[in-house]
Amino acid sequence: MKITIIGGGAVGLLTSGYLTELGHEVDLITKTEEQASLIHKHGVTIKRKGIERSYKVRVTSFQNNLSPNADLYIITLKQWHLHDFFLQWNGTKQPILMLQNGMGHMETAMEYLTESSLYAGSVTHGALKIDEVTVEHTGIGDIVIGPWLNNCPPLVDLIDEVHTHFPIHYTNDIQYILKRKLLINLVVNPLTCIYQVKNGELLNNPYFYKNVRGLFEEGIQVLGLDDLEWEVVKKVISQTSENKSSMFRDMEKGLPTEVEAITGYVLKVAEHKGISLPLTSFVHKSILGLERGKCHE
Ligand SMILES: NC(=O)C1=CN([C@@H]2O[C@H](COP(=O)(O)OP(=O)(O)OC[C@H]3O[C@@H](n4cnc5c(N)ncnc54)[C@H](OP(=O)(O)O)[C@@H]3O)[C@@H](O)[C@H]2O)C=CC1
Ligand SMILES: CC(C)(CO)C(=O)C(=O)O
Q: 121, 97 in Cβ contact below 8 A?
């Protein structure tokens, strides 16, 4: 496929390298001209388990008119970049795949992208941007994609179930997959940020654990998920026990967090349903307050 990837961050670099490896024709769109010229010169490098591999990727910095004839556009921006980006972009009629955490971003996408077939994806890889051209693949997961609205055809040419370190699966129920990831991010991300601990500490410390369970119970009530998801949440926390959550890392770097797309989104749905979520509301305000103290922007 001819694929345009928007955003030269951790997920954008990882996706552009691996989709090139899989034989797709990739155009990467960075925010800055500096990053574009570095990638033009050195390619994109993916580090995995101490081994580095570089990929030659076509790259340009963002302008309103992105190469208009891609078969698919993949947006790998943070959710809080999206309004600004959509306001500046002339858009496309071609299919668009959104790869953000949370769920609030899909409402934003629907607001702006009225002419495209819209797809959502859930990423469970760990990716850490090392420098402008290098990303470390810190955890091998997968990407599950699916149509956001029922009338979008499956992206058959993108599916690759067998790739050992970058499998892409397809689902007809991406809403459920995103909700499940949202639930994990709802309980893990804000608490790790408030307590300033790695993910695993949420299970090890009995007091933190009680709050994980409390947030989980509020989350499943609003999202309509089953108590059985508790085992999934604990498994993901164990598997990522040595990770600092993305929200904790953003906060440490003085960047805005994705709290509105995660906790803020759940609170909005709860309000709509007339459900009160005291613990979720407490962590939401706590993160906003901490951001206010630390954020550079
Ligand atoms: N990293 C990970 O392991 C995982 C991430 N995710 C999700 O994926 C999404 C992306 O995350 P991640 O890649 O880590 O985030 P990053 O912040 O690393 O990447 C976003 C990139 O988009 C760039 N950008 C901003 N505006 C524009 C623009 N107008 N045109 C082109 N590029 C632009 C940013 O540039 P600048 O920094 O200069 O603003 C940044 O390089 C998030 O929603 C995250 O939650 C999900 C699972 C795992
Ligand atoms: C799964 C988890 C919690 C891993 O750290 C994550 O998705 C994040 O940090 O955003």
A: yes
